[in-house]
Amino acid sequence: MGSSVVERNRVDSPDGGWGWVVLFGGFIITGFSYAFPKAISVYFKELMRDFGCGYSDTAWISSIMLAMLYGSGPISSILVNKFGCRPVMLIGGLLASAGMIGASFTTNIIQIYLTAGVITGLGLALNFQPSLIMLGSYFDKRRPLANGLAAAGSPVFLSALSPLGQVLLDCFGWRGGFLIMGGLLLNCCTCGAVMRPLGYKVRKSAARDESNAHELKEMLPSKTGQEENDLEKGQKDKPKRKKLLDFSVLCDKGLVIYIVAKFVVVLGLFVPTILLVNYAKDQGIPDKEAAFLLSIIGFIDIFARPTCGLVAGLKCVRAKMPYFFSLALLLNGLTDICSARSTDYTGLVIFCVFFGLSYGMVGALQFEVLMGIVGTNNFSSALGLVLLIEATAVLIGPPSAGRLVDTYKNYELIFYMAGGELMAAGLFLAIASYCCIKVQKKKDTSAIQDTDTEGNSNHTNHEGTHAMENS
């Protein structure tokens, strides 16, 4: 309960200090949250052989995990607002690890959905959102750079976990690989432990002073009526408790536009990376080279995200962040469409290079845009609602793509589908943001002009009245 007091009495962001430790913890959490659902795709071929299922069935594992990551957003927001970030992240780390360890003992694909999909996904969700909230608390002026560096955890872990998963698969089978991966996820608990609340000691002493004042009040004789009224008035003047989940943020037009665009984005954003390894293996590419394709995306992404974060921190760019994000979406969608006919290993490597660049831009900008729209104070509730809406999209996207492959035996369709969705989302975000901002500016200008006119009119009337009185 002490952490909830910390949340309500927020101090200024230090933009450094212990914030760099928090940033490193967010780096690891982001890496596991986004890279893990893609990295386990190296096990899909073995799961298909053992359980006799198809592409769509195995794609559900990653989709459920991502859907829990998104859909548990409101739950995470409520828990963070009530208990604070640190305890929520510790519980999340334990759940993420327990899910993968339990999955190693499963006997059918449904059990994997429940363990690796639901439990591990929920654990990652309880780590991911609090890490973003803590990052926003510790950084303000350097926030675009901090978000870019934290987002770089995704490609770094993707580059490492995909080859590691293939090695574990070759040495221990998919069950041993799941067990070891579950052990690695315990590092999320360590990251949660370093998420020290901002200004905790100051607020703790304030709470102690309030407790001492209450004890002193009980020891003293009863107060007079005037003193009681003053006391009641002081209690009324106290700030209200923070809502566990504030739905009023949905009144913001900019947030509604962002939610619609992100829903379409998530339909196609994860499709290429989840099905890429299986596609390469079906083209006759050896298993290790196929798994290395995800590492190529990760290597490029490592440099793309911090670089994009630096560019986003420029004053001229930060003021037009939604348009910069739209450009990243258009580039990512165009990469998917242009690479739909790539079948040889060289073509797939080229695709991975350009995909890693554009995907890194999207990853570095998405939460910075959201923070810019709603602000730091409303970020927790807004993020929870955004992730909940996106959960539906992530449940639809990859399994639908897998169903297309199972039905038509043609991978080109999934690249066209994913690319078209991303380009449509980018165009919608740019056009809707421009129209919304333009209309808002006109309203603000009109309001200012009306105020000036009214002020001048009142000033003229006042002068006329003053002249009459003098005469």
TrEMBL record:
Keywords from the UniProt entry: Cell membrane, Membrane, Symport, Transmembrane, Transmembrane helix, Transport
Region (Disordered): 211-237, 447-471
Keyword Transmembrane attributed: yes
Major facilitator superfamily (MFS) profile domain residues: 19-437
Polar residues compositional bias, start-end: 447-459
Pfam (any one): MFS_1
Record's compositionally biased regions (Basic and acidic residues): 211-220, 460-471
Primary location: membrane
Membrane topology: Multi-pass membrane protein
SUPFAM superfamilies in the record: MFS general substrate transporter
Any one GO cellular component localisation term in the record: basolateral plasma membrane
Transmembrane spans: 20-40, 60-80, 87-106, 112-133, 145-164, 176-195, 255-279, 291-311, 323-342, 348-370, 382-401, 413-437
Domain of life where this protein originates: Eukaryota
Compartments it resides in: Basolateral cell membrane
GO molecular function, a single term: monocarboxylic acid transmembrane transporter activity
Family: Belongs to the major facilitator superfamily. Monocarboxylate porter (TC 2.A.1.13) family.
PANTHER family attached to this UniProt entry: MONOCARBOXYLATE TRANSPORTER (PTHR11360), MONOCARBOXYLATE TRANSPORTER 3 (PTHR11360:SF26)
Protein name in UniProt: Major facilitator superfamily (MFS) profile domain-containing protein
